[in-house]
Amino acid sequence: MIIYILCFILFLVGLYGVVSKRNLIKIIIGIAIMEYSINLFFIMIGYIEGGTAPIITKGFEHSKFVDPLPQAMILTSIVIGLATTALLLAVAIRLYQKYGTFDINKIKDLKG
Amino acid sequence: MNSLIPLFVIIPLGCAFLMAMLGRFIKNINKFITPIFMLSLVYLTFHFIINSEGTLIYKVGGFEPVNGIPIAIYMVMDGLTKLILLVISLVGFLAIFYSLSYTKQYTSERKFYVLFSLMIAGMNGIVLSGDIFNIFVFLEIAAISSYALVAFGVEKQQLEASFKYQVLGGIASLIILLAIGLIYWNTGTLNIADISRQLTINCSSPTGTNVFIKFISVLLIAGFGLKAAIFPFHTWLPDAHSSAPSPISAMLSGVLIKAVGIYVIIRLFFNMFPLSYELSMTITVLGTISMIIGGLLAIGQWDIKRMLAYSSISQIGYIVLGLGIGMLVLATGGNKAVAALSITGGLFHLLNHSIFKGLLFLSAGAVEYRTGTRDMRKMGGLSEVLPITSRTSLVGSLAISGIPPFNGFFSKLIIIIAAIQAQYYVLAFLAVLVSVITIAYFMKLQKYTFYNNDGSKWKEKKIKEVPFSMAFSMIVMALLCITLSLLVIPDVREIFLKPAVDVLINTADYSTKILGM
User: What is the rounded CA–CA span in Å between residue B210 and residue B457?
Assistant: First the structure.
C-alpha cells in the first residue's frame, strides 16, 4: 500500500510545482512529474510479485503472469505525453521571444 | 452498415496525413480536399440517422468476445452518438467553408487545415469509442490540435491563451488518466459496457465499493468538467476561445467543449455508473452556478469575442442543468416522462447552441476581419457597411436570447417546463432569470457593434461586405437557427432527438445491448 501512497505524493509534488511556480519551464517540469507518477501507477497496477512475461511456452503454462495491458496503455500515454510536452515547450519558447521573460507575472495581457 | 463506422475516424485522419504530405507540392490542395471530406462526413451522418436503428457495434480487428468478455476495441454507434456526430460534421463543414477566405491573413494556411482535420478525427473518435482508454487517446488528439490552433496566430495574446489552456488541459487529461487507472484496477476491464456490468455486480456487495465509485466520479467530473468549462473550472475558456482564429472559436465553443466534455460526462454518468442522488445533485448545482456566473461576467465585457466566450459558459450551464434534472429525476425514481422531457431539452439546447454560438463567433470574426478590432467601443454603425453580417448576427443574438420563433426559445422553454414539472421551482426561476440577463448583454453587443451611429467612419475607410465563402456559412447557419425550431414538432423530434433520449433514459440498456445479453 505504501508504494501507492508514495506514487500519489509524487503526483502532488508535480501539482504543487504547477500551482506555485512562476517560471514557465518549471510549470512544464511539474506537468511532466505528474505524468510520470501516473505512468508509474499504471505499471504498478499490472505488476504481480514473482510474475513473468505473459508468453506461454513449454513448461511455463501455469506460472504467474504480469498483466500486459497497463504496459501497452502506458506506451500510448508516453507518446501522448511527448507530444504535449513538445507543444508546451514550443509555446514557452515563442512566449520568451515575445516577452523576453519566463516569469508568468509579467506575461498577462489577457484579463477580465 | 457496421463496417462503415470507422470511416468517421479514417476519413479525417487520412486526409490530414495526405494534406500534410501533398500540401507542400500542390498549391491550395488543402482548400479543395477539406470541404469535400467534411461534406462526405455530413452525408455519412445523415445516412446513418435515416437508415439505421438501434445500437451498431464495430469490433476493431474483428476479435469476438471470449466467454462474454469483450476483448476487441469497440466502436459503438447509437442515438446519442448520431446526434453529436451531426453537430460535429455540420458545424465543422460550415466553419471550414468560412475559413477558405478567413485564413488568407495567415502565412502557413495549409497547416491550419491539417490541424483542423486532426481535431475532427479526435472528436469523432471520442464520440464513437466504446472503450474508456480510447476516449482518452482521442481526447488528447482533439486537445493537442486545438492547443495548436488556439496559438495559430502566434501573437502575444494567442500564445498566452494557448499556454494557459495547455496547462489546465494537461492537468485535466492527467486526472482523467488517473481515474481510468483506478477503474481498471478495480474492475479489470476498459470496455464501458463491461465496466457498467462489473460495477453493478460490485455494488450489491457492500464493502467499500461505493466510496470507490464516488472517488472516481469526482475525479471524472473534475477532469471532464475542466474540458467542458463548467464552473469552477471555467477560467481558461474566455482566453482560449477569444484568442483563437474565429472559425476555430466557433468549433471550440460550438462543438469541442460538448464532444469532449458534456458528451463524455453524460455517457459515463448515465450509462456506466449506477445513478446516485448525490452526484446528480453535484452536476446540477455546478451547471446552475456556471449558468449564472457566465451570464453575470458576460455583461461587463467590451471585447466582442470574450463576451461570446463567457456566454458559452452560461449556455453550457443550461445544457448541464437540463441533463442534470433528468438525472435527478431518474436517480430518485421519479416520473420517466419528466426525465425524458428534461433530457430532450438539454440535448435540444446542445444542438441549438452549437449552431447559434457558431454563427455568433463567425459574425464576430467577420467584423474583426473587416475592421481589425475586437473592442466594441471602437465599433458602431457597422450595419450600414456590413448588411449581411449584421443581419445574421442579429438572428444569432435573438436565437440565443430565446426570442420566438427561433430555436433557442423552444429549447429553453422545454428545460424550464421540465424543471417545473420535476418541482425544482428555484432552478426554473434561475433559468428564466439568466435568460433575461442573456437578452441584456446581447442587446449591448448589437447596439455597440452594429448600431449606435451612422457608420460614416467606416464608409470613409471604404469597408466592404465580407467575401462569399464567409457570407455563405453565416447565412446557412442563420437559416438553420429558424429551421431547427421545427424540432419541437413531435414527428421531426422522433427522428433526431428521441433515439438519443432513449439511450439516456434506459440507462442499463447500453451495456446489455453491447454485451449481447
Answer: 65
**B251, B91 Cβ separation under 8 angstroms:** yes
- Put simply, the answer to whether B144 touches A31 (Cβ < 8 Å) is no
Q: Is the peptide bond before B232 cis (omega within 30 degrees of 0)?
A: yes
CATH number 1.10.287.3510 is the correct assignment for the domain at A2-49+66-99: yes
Closest chain B residue to the Cα of A8, Cα to Cα: B178
Chain B residues whose CB is inside 8 A of the A41 CB are 178, 181
Residue B341: closest CA among B422, B427, B435 = B422
| Chain B neighbors of A110, CB-CB under 8 A | 157, 160-161, 164, 239, 243
Tens of pLDDT along B479-498? 998 888 888 888 888 888 88
For residue B181, the chain A residue with the least C-alpha distance is A42
Which residues from chain B sit within 8 angstroms of residue A95, using beta carbons? Answer: 159-160, 163
> What is the structure's pLDDT at B207?
57
**Chain B contact for A100, CB < 8 A?**
no
Q: Say yes or no for a CB contact (<8 Å) between A95 and B133.
A: no
Cell of B228: 467542458
Close Cβ partners of B272 (under 8 Å, ≥ 6 residues apart): B192, B195, B196, B199, B511
Of the partner residues B133, B166, B171, the one whose CB lies closest to the CB of residue A87: B166
Domain coverage including residue B326: 2-515
Number of helices (H) and strands (E) in chain A: give both, helices first: 3, 0
Using DSSP, how many helices (H) and how many strands (E) does chain B show?
Answer: 22, 2
pLDDT in tens, B367-421: 888 888 888 888 877 888 888 888 899 999 999 988 888 888 999 999 999 999 9
Instruction: Tell me if chain B has a CB within 8 Å of the CB of A71.
Output: no
Nearest to B303, CA basis, from B383, B249, B247, B257:
B249
Q: How far is A71 from chain B (nearest CA, A)?
A: 12
Nine-digit cell string for B45: 451522418
The C-alpha atoms of residue B233 and residue B373 are separated, in whole angstroms, by 28
Q: What is the pTM of this model?
A: 0.92
Give me B331's grid cell.
436517480
For residues B469 and B102, what is the distance between their CA atoms, to the nearest angstrom?
9
Amino acid sitting at position B91? V
Place A86 in a pLDDT band, splitting at 50, 70 and 90.
Answer: very high
Q: Looking at chain A, which residue has its C-alpha nearest residue B134?
A: A73
User: What helix, strand, coil percent values describe chain A, rounded to 5?
Assistant: 65, 5, 30
Query: What Å distances lie between residue B192 and B61, B183, B510, CA to CA?
Result: 18, 10, 9
Locate the domains of chain A by residue range: 2-49+66-99
Residue B89: CB partners within 8 Å, gap ≥ 6? B38, B41, B42, B44, B45, B120
User: B178 to chain A: which residues are within 8 Å by CB?
Assistant: 11, 38, 41
Residue listed under C-alpha cell 458528451? B263
Assess B68–A contact: CB distance below 8 Å, yes or no.
no
Q: Which amino acid, one-letter code, is at B464?
A: K
- The minimal CB distance from B159 to the residues A15, A38, A98 is found for A98
DSSP label of B261: I
Q: Which residue has the cell 464513437?
A: B128
